[in-house]
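In this supplementary section we document a worked example of the pipeline. Step one takes a protein sequence of length 201 as its only input; no multiple sequence alignment statistics are reported here. Step two produces a three-dimensional model, which step three serialises into structure tokens for compact storage. The input and output of this example are shown verbatim.
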Amino acid sequence: HTLYIKNRHFKKWIYENEIHIFNFSKLGNKQLDLIKSGMKSAIKLAKLHFKLFYGNVNRFRSLAHKTNSDELLKIFLDERKKSHKQHASVFIFNNPIKAKDYVIKDGEALTYVSEGITIFSFDPKVNYDNNFLRCRAKHETLHLLGLNTHHEDTKVKGYDNAKCIMEYNAPTINLCSKCKDALLSFWSGIKHATKKQFIKN
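The serialised model returned by step three reads:
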């Protein structure tokens, strides 16, 4: 948490206590509500006060055909500065998004924890399963909320190797005790560093 708390973007979005969802994809209301449900579940697990809103996509008209993650990030941050709205943002696209050495597509996402930004890409030709949408949204929101590693990348003595939503392919809706303790520890550290209450009692 120490590296994050020194980042000016991070402090602004966590103090705002809001996450806005901007949909540029062809996902319908039912599918968006499933994504929102997965996000709510992640926020509840972290015991945080963050509220979710659907954002006005007209704020980001210039994004429609952008496909490069660095370019998108710059636009997001420039608009945030201009509008003085510091909330975290989740952007959902149809088109694949090019990152540095890979392409985000078909339900994958890229998350910038410091900046409070997540970018999803869903294939408009695919009819996604309800559970897939919930799991992907919950998985990526847990990344956004500071659990910025995958379950299989950390070994901690004393924890069972239970199935966990934070495995790379999110094979279950459940968060294992190891990853949950890491998440709560992260926010306890943020509380200590900022002297601000984030976690619900």
